[in-house]
Specification:
alpha/beta, Rossmann fold, globular, binds nicotinamide-adenine-dinucleotide
Length: about 270
């Protein structure tokens, strides 16, 4: 690896599994000291241990990102060991059956589902930025995980999609507020990434539908997301801020009406 993060301190939320675990591992592999933060202590510990197993420096942080006090303490714990934060990847989101799985049509929606989604996905990102910006003395890079669900509508997951859309606006506000201090803020918006959580959340028919929507034959992997997050977090993207970059293998680039029509006309 090129060591693009040699000597830098990175904090990744939702690092206990899936995309966050892969991004934490990538930043560590390229030289960063990584705080792997997750609500699930076992997940945070596993990611930090894996980083150390590969010769990197990883610290597990257990924290609910929707709780301001816990976020403050987690950031302080990281800073007590490493002095500051250079990279924040705010990636934690509610993606379980109890909340995301019940985020369905609005007329019967349990408003607790809406509230918890906003608390974790949106308030959590705000709290992470609020408590991390003051410990970025030399500027820094913030990457938020949004989703293609922010960019189009669907018949389910209004809370999730709305929270992810708000993160795109929040990205621009953070970029605007702190640009003069050398702090950049960008978002990544993946389409389906086949993490264990995504596999649990979607039926085989939904997975097949998503495959049919892609222009490219391959779906995004956690490594693809880590590639983009690492690019946005490192100096190679020093002039990129306030942007949302989509990784979707071409899902949103087209409106395949002719293809749909042709497939209907086929015998
Ligand atoms: N997998 C996909 O298809 C996909 C597509 C687009 C966007 N995303 C986004 O990517 C991110 C990661 O998704 P994933 O597939 O890796 O899911 P995941 O469930 O594996 O990862 C989310 C992590 O966040 C943690 N978390 C949940 N609530 C938390 C809280 N309150 N405080 C701290 N940590 C908390 C979970 O414990 C989990 O480890 C999420 O923001 C998700 O919305 C995923």
């Amino acid at each position: 690896m090129s060591g693009r993060f040699d000597g830098r301190v990175a904090l990744v939320t939702g690092a206990g599994s899936g995309i966050g675990a892969a991004c934490a591992a990538r930043l560590a592999a390229e030289g960063a000291f990584v705080g792997a933060l997750d609500l699930r202590a076992a997940g945070a510990r596993a990611t930090a241990a894996a980083i150390r197993g590969h010769g990197g420096t990883g610290m597990a942080l257990t924290c609910d990102v929707s709780d301001g006090k816990q976020v403050e303490e987690a950031v302080a714990t990281l800073v007590a060991s490493f002095g500051r934060v250079d990279v924040l990847h705010s990636n934690a989101a509610v993606f379980d059956q109890d909340v995301y799985g019940r985020d369905r049509e609005l007329e019967t929606l349990d408003t607790a589902v809406w509230d918890r989604t906003m608390e974790v996905n949106l308030r959590g990102a705000m709290l992470m930025v609020k408590h991390t910006v003051p410990v970025m003395p030399d500027g820094g890079a913030i990457v938020l995980t949004s989703s293609v669900s922010a960019l189009v509508g669907d018949t389910v997951h209004a809370a999730y999609g709305t929270s992810k859309a708000a993160l795109i606006g929040f990205t621009r506000y953070v970029a605007t507020m702190y640009g003069s201090r050398g702090i950049r803020c960008n978002a990544v918006a993946p389409a389906l990434v086949l993490t264990a959580a995504a596999r649990r959340a979607l039926t085989p028919a939904q997975l097949a539908d998503k495959a049919a929507e892609r222009l490219l034959p391959w779906p995004c992997t956690v490594e693809d997301v880590a590639n983009l997050v690492a690019f946005l977090a490192c100096d190679e993207s020093r002039c990129v801020t306030g942007q949302t970059l989509v990784l979707d293998s071409g899902t949103l680039a087209h409106r395949p009406q002719h293809a749909v029509q042709q497939s209907r006309d086929l015998p």
